[in-house]
Specification:
The chain has 387 residues and is an alpha+beta fold. The protein is built from eleven helices and five strands. Helix content is 59%, strand content 10%.
Length: 387
């Protein structure tokens, strides 16, 4: 019998789990009647070893073989008898005994081992043909001793399994609470990203409208084009991610409109490019991933530079992962102390925290110097979605 590829089972959660499952390796095997039979056989041999070693301490070596054989017979007779009793009891009760009240379960899980020990001893005496020993055991005193010993062993095993049961329930409650908190964090992170995506920076909007007004008489065609691109940007900002989802194609289209407007405002001081294949347009991207990075590059990289600069957005597939880069040729690290996210307040640490809430450890964000000047931010996301 080989171990399946399933993860290790959690700690014992029921009193009717096999006693061998106190060992972690035993919980690697999927429960089945065959597995339980094999486990009972192994458990019986463990008892054989324990009782044999104990008996050897008080018995001369010439009788060790008899001790081993007697322990093999009695351990297997008792072990498989108890195994059969629990299997029969589970079938008769529809495996509902684990949900009985405490005293009902205590009686059930104590009575079966007692009966199994008595019956197992009787079968063992018959196999070994120990008539005298059988006669001595099946007396009121002998039966009382067996029952007392069985109750002690059952109580010890019950205490162990009950402690494991309580620990498992506590662990399950902890995991459920942790999952609830993780879900709440993902929901909050997604809501924050959606709120960011839905907003257009007021200063950007006011400056653009003022620029349009100043060009209406002197450059009406340019003013009209700028106004059209602004409408496209506002419409994209208002509708993108409305259902909590967003794609790379949607965000790139939004950035094209944004950079187009800025390009008309800044003239030759701003050059920009976007490189991405059509095959990547449908790839899922959390809302507002690109907007704060581009805004930050403009405000704290390009605008402070006397000669302006360029912004390059590039997306590619690397081994199934979506990699998106936002690079600028602005003033870089030396002249700018602004955090990633700039005017939107989305710092690099916040960006990483929100991606971690959505993807766990599968998301990576790196920031590096862009040669010959500027900053390059790279986001690497797994192929799976974030919810």
């Amino acid at each position: 019998m080989t171990a399946p590829t399933d993860p290790i089972r959690p700690p014992l959660t029921r009193l009717d789990d096999h006693p061998l499952e106190v060992f972690a390796w035993a919980r690697r095997f999927r429960p089945s009647p065959l597995r339980d039979l094999v486990f009972t056989l192994i458990f019986n041999q463990l008892l054989v070893g324990v009782f044999t070693l104990f008996g050897m301490l008080f018995t001369p070596p010439e009788r060790w073989r008899d001790i081993v054989w007697a322990n093999v017979v009695f351990s297997n007779c008792i072990g498989f008898t108890i195994h059969a009793e629990f299997a029969l009891g589970g079938w008769l009760t529809g495996n509902r005994c684990g949900r009985w009240p405490f005293w009902g379960r205590a009686f059930y899980y104590s009575a079966i081992p007692v009966i199994g020990v008595v019956v197992g001893y009787w079968i063992g005496f018959e196999i070994l043909d120990w008539k005298v020993a059988r006669a001595n055991m099946f007396t009121p005193g002998g039966i009382a001793a067996v029952v007392a010993l069985s109750l002690i062993l059952s109580s010890v095993l019950g205490l162990i399994l009950s402690a494991r049961e309580r620990a498992a329930k506590s662990q399950a409650a902890f995991e459920a609470e942790r999952a609830r908190v993780a879900t709440a964090e993902r929901t909050a992170a997604l809501a924050q990203l959606q709120a960011l995506e839905a907003q257009v920076e007021p200063h950007f909007l006011y400056n653009t409208l003022a620029h349009v007004v100043s060009m209406i008489e002197t450059e009406p065609a340019t003013a009209r084009r700028m106004l059209e691109r602004l409408i496209v940007l506002l419409r994209a900002s208002a509708t993108s991610g409305a259902d909590g989802r967003s794609t790379l194609g949607e965000q790139l289209a939004q950035m094209r409109a944004y950079l187009d407007v800025l390009g008309m405002r800044m003239g030759p001081r701003l050059a920009w490019s976007i490189e991405s294949s059509d095959a990547l347009a449908g790839r899922e991207l959390p809302p507002a991933m690109l907007q704060p990075l581009v805004e930050n590059a403009i405000k704290h990289g390009i605008e402070p530079a006397l000669a302006g600069g360029a912004i390059a957005i590039a997306a590619r597939d690397e081994g199934g992962r979506l990699v998106v880069e936002v690079a600028d040729t602005g003033v870089g690290f030396v002249a700018s102390s602004a955090p990633i996210g700039g005017s939107t307040g989305l710092g690099l640490s916040n960006l990483r925290a929100r991606l971690a809430a959505l993807y766990g450890d599968d998301a990576r964000v790196t920031i590096a110097e862009n040669r010959p000047s500027g900053v390059r931010v790279t986001i690497s996301l797994p192929a799976r979605g974030f919810r």
